[in-house]
Please model this.
Amino acid sequence: MDRAADAVWREVRDFPALAAWHPGVASSTAHPDNPRIRDLVTTDGIRLTEALHTVDDTLMTLEYCFVAHPFPLTGYHARMEVRPEGDTRCSVTWTAAFRPAEGDGAALAAQFEAGVFVAGLEALGARGRS
Model:
């Protein structure tokens, strides 16, 4: 994306503030008892809770998992990684792994890819442009 890695990392790293840049998230707030847990409400009303496991400011990576969610899956674990590509560009990789409750999970994976990852990364890349 046409944004400096440090600027993008500052936004990604602010774990509770996902709604500030993701168009599919209506609200995201830090859990009152633990700032490493965020409570989310999507624009279509889905409520979920995610827990931040690791943050590495040097490598610009973070990993998190679902704590509470309505999806037919277990073991959801996601990772975001920001990599500089010169002074004014960067790449962001957002991946997740999970076990589907039934079937092979392909439809659910496609839903996360389009509705969460692609939509979020496009919006993140567009921030800061006039």
